[in-house]
Amino acid sequence: xxxxxxxxxxxxxAVQLFYYLFFFTRLAFYGKGANYGNAMxxxxxxxxxxxxxxxxxxxxxxxxxxxxPEYEVILLDDRSDDGSxxxxxxxxxxxxxxxxxxxxDQFDHVTPKKYALTVGMKQAKYPIALxxxxxxxxxxxxxxxxxxxxxxxxxxxxxxFSPYFKQKGFLNWFxxxxxxxxxxxxxxxTLAGMTYMGVGRNILYKRxxxxxxxxxxxxxxxxxxxxDIFLNEVATSSNTTISIEEDSFVYSLPKTxxxxxxxxxxxxxxxxxxYKPRNKILLGxxxxxxxxxxxxxxxxxxxxxxxxxxxxxxxxxxxxGVRWAIQxxxxxxxxxxxxxxxxxxxxxxxxxxxFVYYLVFGFxxxxxxxxxxxxx
Length: 376
What we know:
With 376 residues, the protein is α/β, with parallel strands linked by helices. Helix content is 51%, strand content 11%.
């Protein structure tokens, strides 16, 4: 029994360490220096909003003050009834780079956000599209510059990082942990030529890529997926890169209660069934190994305590010790690159919290009905 537990545990730990050493090292040792001297093509920033007046009052001045030679910001107001239209029309003449498009129509065959983004893509006057959300805040006035600095003739897609603001409470801590670890995965996989997602809060691509793919046509009816399903379709091993300069970060306002966060995560996870088989396998193996490692570790600990097998407990400590040492070494390096999103001393707790998260949402994904539809 003891030998079987250790062999199984060692196998799953080996799977996890493979991801850390083959994938995550790419991000840990990735050079951050962007070439701001590159040619600066015209950029259209697209912001979709539904009843976001309060957020727009803060975001619009930040976007209008971007230090970039040629850009526009298109505000796509989807049927808002909270005074957003009145606010924008009252102030728009005082903004230099803001355009406003009011969307009054809604269609059964396409979700509201994807329709709004499609309208924005068609109305844009520049070849580069840069997306963010109304509840986001660029880290600097060089956000557009930092993102476009990674665009080349071959690199048509740039994935940025969008952390959440630090606030008090366990929920905020866990949201930051989950966002950080998700970024570690999608940024590392992109560097390995296996892009599977980005975040719509901070993503850039050439409009030609959008239209060559017929936009969101294949998943226009799916709530969500304007970033990850789309990237599953258009990203290749050579056309996508990342930007992790501090100027390129876009901070977001996190959910403040568990119910809203739970609903958001279910919606995000629900679209993963549209991923390419390769991406499903890679992500499934990583999360599955995480779950199995903790389950087997706890079972081995219990068995060792019950049987008073001190040698078994020593081996268990060695296995987890090696695992945590490699994790901490790489995650601390990456965390510094990503603005110290998570407190380094909480990585052990984060490791266990993610185990619970994967276990719960893995079960819900397999057993529950489709999540409630909401604007996205």
